[in-house]
Each structure stands twice: as structure tokens, then as C-alpha cells.
Amino acid sequence: MPVNNTDYVWKYHYNRGLEPFKYSWDGRTETAVKNCKNGTDDGKWCTLVIQLNGWKIPDDYPFKVSY
Question: Among the four residues 1, 36, 52, 63, which has the most C-beta atoms within 10 Å?
């Protein structure tokens, strides 16, 4: 099935270039944070949490990050 802008599950990806995982996302920050913390889809939602925080790792990020 080709991806197009009428496919609601792809609406955050269509013609956007490289984006974090947003397939079937409901657009709510709370959903992304909950899915990240729960490990839903092997942590794919966690990059979206960083994007929603202005590409900065939030203080309450559920995984240890060191750099």
C-alpha cells in the first residue's frame, strides 16, 4: 500500500523528511512520554520525546544518558 497524505497513520511523516517515530501518534505529548517510559515499540517513542523538548534530553528522561 503506498503511503500518502490521506493515510491518517502516516500524517506526521508524509513529505517531512527524516522524523522520529510517529506512526499512528495521536499528537499528544503525554502519549509520547507514556510510550517512551513504558518501552512501547522498543523505545522508538523516546526520540519523539526529545524532539518535543526542543531536541534536548529532558531531566526526567527514562534512560540513562551520558556524554
Answer: 36
